[in-house]
Amino acid sequence: MDKLIDSGEAKAIVHNGLWKQNAGIVQILGMCPVLVMSNNIINGVSLGLATSLVMLISGMAVAAIRRFVPNELRTPIFILIIAALVTMVDLAMNAWVHGLYVVLGIFIPLITTNCIVLARAEAFASKNGVLQSGLDGLFMGLGLTGVLAVLGAMRELVGQGTLLSSIDLLFGPQAKDWMIHVIPADANYQFLLAMLPPGAFIGLGFLVAGKLALDRRAEARAKAAPPPPASETATV
Amino acid sequence: MITSPFLTKPTPLQLVMTKVLLALLPGIAVYVYVFGAGILIQLLLATLTALGVEAACLKLRNFPIKPFITDGSAIVTAWLLALSLPPLAPWWMIVLATAIAIGLAKHLYGGLGQNTFNPAMVGFAVMMVSFPAQMSRWAAPQAELGAAGQLAFIFTGHLAVPFDAIASATPLDTVKTTILQHGGIGELFAAPLFHAGQLGAGWLPSMMGWIALAYLAGGLWLYASKIIPWQTPVAFIASLAALSGVLHLVDPARFTSPLFHLFSGAAMLGAFFIITDPVSGPTTPRGRLIYGALIGVLVYVIRVFGGYPDGVAFAVLIMNLAAPFIDQYTQPKVFGRKGKAA
After folding, report:
1. What sections of the sequence does the record tag as coiled-coil (chain A) (predicted)?
2. Which of A223, B129, B160, B228 lies at 20 to 30 Å from B66 by C-alpha?
3. B106 part of a folded domain
4. Which chain B residue's Cα is nearest to A194?
5. How far apart are CA B76 and CA A126, in angstroms?
6. Predicted structure pTM score
7. Range of the domain at B153
């Protein structure tokens, strides 16, 4: 393992996926599912995890066959691999979490066309080793999942005053009580804008701005303090 | 302080905004007569919220607070919003609407002069989309409630009589539902809602028509004092009147008269105070004609064929989007050149 991938490289890949090149708020890729499925935490995280799984396997598969793929034909071949994986995830979700499957609907098959999946296959997996590509796919996916979770929580909280609504779709009917009513249910609180697509756009805008603000603050602090030893190696 | 007959000092922004506020006063006075003193509370709430949010945003953006907050533009936005929302809406609605208008639609886009959309109309549209039920709860004109009763209702939601006893649909609402249910207007206009009150003037479509008439007077004064151009309101009124006139002639049982359209809802307020916003509208004379006319068309289409009773806010927002495009294709010919300016 140590010979295939050293810890500095792995750390850089993880940092890239989760923060520096975050698919949701830096690359702004795959907006369609991000905007539609971020109306609560459960939907967002479920779709994010399904995408992560597809990206993990597709990254490894694409990297494994990268030497045998003719350059001219790479896009259809990548898409075929991704589509096959998505079909597996689709069938698995239909079998084991059917309620969620119904809610996510068309957005599971659409993971195939989610540009972040193809973008990582094209930009990273076709040029790097199997382990690196798997790691990159997984953490790019988890970075997107994080954005979906935060955005989902924001929209759910502002839109209907709850957290973890429809969690029973994931863990069965006994999980119904796990839903948190931040604003008491009998207050009938509702702010429709946050639940509708404009709420997703506005929320995502705030997340992008928040990320930039954090980066800027870190930069200012790094400038004020003596520079730490440069450990970050450039990848991608 | 005029230095030469041809060089005049530009009107300071503060004066422009003060004049716009002054021009709204006759409308507000009639509004108080028709709906009671509740609107004054809404205006006060809106003004306080607007100034507070404006100051907070300026501070966050490291702008000097005093010169910007005294320009009056935030108060104009606040008043337009207060005049568009139902007069007896609960207090948090006008506060939220104003905060969204100033914070989201104005400052997130870069502050005065940078906002793509008319802030007041963004606030209104957000409320309309998020709280459709509360936004359609209008009290009947001259409901017996008294200023204290209105104040209590706005802040606590408690009322001596059930709200339904004093509630009433707006004329635009009534026309919309009647057509949906019966397919024609028929005897609708015999209903008391459509009487213009004891003041006579049988041609006005309702009590609200008096408010619209006062807005018209304020708007004409604004034009006379060279605060607003003539192109936008004239084009808007002409296109709305022409469209409704033609369809009214074709089928009077299905389409209401041009007078009804011009003196109902936000048409007059929109014509002189909303679509004339110099920031979010086009700047060329020909562009203003096109802009006003298309807003008139959209207002009519939304009112008659759309899902909402009134369409001024949505029509203005759509045309705000088109304003830069209109500007680009209506650049006037530069004096002395043969072709158009590049």
Report:
1. none
2. B228
3. yes
4. B130
5. 58
6. 0.84
7. 9-168
